[in-house]
Each structure stands twice: as structure tokens, then as C-alpha cells.
Amino acid sequence: MSAPTKRVLLANPRGYCAGVDRAVITVEKALETYGAPVYVRKEIVHNRHVVETLRERGAIFVDEADEVPEGALVVFSAHGVSPAVHEQAAERGLRTIDATCPLVTKVHFEARRFAKEDYDILLIGHEGHEEVEGTAGEAPEHVQLVDTAEDVAKVEVRDPSKVIWLSQTTLSVDETMERVDQLRERFPDLQNPPSDDICYATQNRQVAVKALAPECELVLVVGSQNSSNSKRLVEVALQAGADAAYLVDFAHEVQESWLDGVSTVGVTSGASVPDNLVMDLLRWLAERGYGQVDEVTTANEKVAFALPAELRKALKA
Predict the structure, then answer these.
(1) Catalytic annotation on 56?
(2) How many CA atoms lie within 13 A of 41 on its CB side?
(3) Catalytic residue among 131, 235, 253, 310, which?
């Protein structure tokens, strides 16, 4: 009997979303326009390769705005920051460029709006994630974080008829709706956000993985361990029928033993991953006999976001 054909199913869409593309270009253009160093609060996006590349070009990554010298330029990451961070930057006389993803900004706006209307806001997300901290910081007295099923039981609201849920933009769609259903059992009048909070790119990448995973013994997701949307892709692949799924930053992290008995490998990448890292992985797989690559396309993305206003103004000057 002839050995089964080795092949790769390549997810499309994958990799950079519009918000990540905008944030990375923002730091690149800031370095070109103002020169190094350009300070960046937190990682501009959650990807080791991107952060290291920008660091080599003169970006300095800090945890908080108070680590930035007074009067210097600081870029806020794609994940967003709370009003307290903006205030801290203003107090230090920092020049700021806000690279918050417009889809995260939308959730911030929703948090402010429903806090103003005196709702209890149940924010579905992962504790400690920068995006969650930024959104919760918009209305800390109104927001309760719901991360796990156990958190659902702990929620207390003032008026069960004035409760709304919002979510971190990079979650698994299925996991989020599971939390919503659990919350709605406790609060039947729980309201949905005015528009979908989960990012279009996060959803599209999960749909693509769901389409290819049932045919794959192995799915490889290119992405970093601190990338929420990349980690969700691993979970989605396993739930959709892949025998195994792993998250790797680089091709050399793939263990040869993972390929034992594997004829079809699924490949995708998180929304903060440049496509050259995926191409490196495809070359690595081709060297091991997986030269046939079939693309699985479930959506065509045409979204693009304008650069932050502060930077557009400087570029026109």
C-alpha cells in the first residue's frame, strides 16, 4: 500500500488583522517621524517576533507610563488603556499616540454609555488581560469581570432589569456565548451589546479553523503564549475535531514527534502574527514531506483602519 499523501491545509483568513496592522505601522511611522527612542506602554501587540523587531529599531517597551521620561513620546498599545493611564501621561507631560484598536475603542464607548445610564455591566474576559483592564477602567464602579463559570455565580447586581454584558474582543465566540447563557439563567433580562463585541478577525480566524480541523490529525497555530486570540485558535481546533493542536512562535519550536502518523496538518496564525512566520513554517513542513498546500478560505477580509489622528497630523506637517 502506498503511504497517504502528506499535505497542509492553510487557513484563510489568518494572521494580521486591521487593528494589529495599524498598531505596528503606528510604531514604525513614529520611529521614522520622530526618531528613536519611541516608548510603548506594554507590548504593542502580543507577538514576540513583532516586539523584538520593533525593539531593535528603537522602540522601548515599558509596563507603565510613569517609566517614560517626562515630555517623551509614548504609544499606547492596540489593547487599549483606561482613563487613569491617559491622566497619568498628561500629568507627566508625555506626548501620546493612541494605537488602541478601533474595535476595542467601541467597547470602551459602550462601557461609558451604559455606566452613564446606570447599568450593571458584566464584562466577559480574562482576568489580567490588558484589554480587560482598559475597558473595566472606563467605569470601574459599574463593571464586574466574568472570566469563569464560577464567576457567574458570584455576580451581584442592583437591578436585574438593568444588566448588560460586554466582552473582550479576542475571545472564543463559543466560550463567550456559553458564559452569556449561564448569566442569562441568573438574569433573564440580561441585555446584549448594541453590536457584536468579538472582533470580526477573531471570529473569521476561528471559523476558518473550524472548517479545516476535522480533516487534520494536527493543527499548528503560529502565535505567542500571551496572545488571547491565538490560544483560542488552539482550543477551537481541538473542539472542532483535530487530534492534536499546538501553539508555536516559530517553526523550529515544532517537535518532529508531533508529525508521527500525520498525513494532514492544519496551519493558521493569530491576529498579531506577521505572515512571514507562517511561510517559515510551511517551508519547514515542506522539508519533511508536506509540500502540498491547499488553502481553506472561509472569508475575504477588506477591513482597514486609518492611522491614529496624532500621527496623521504629524505625517502631513
Answers:
(1) no
(2) 31
(3) 131
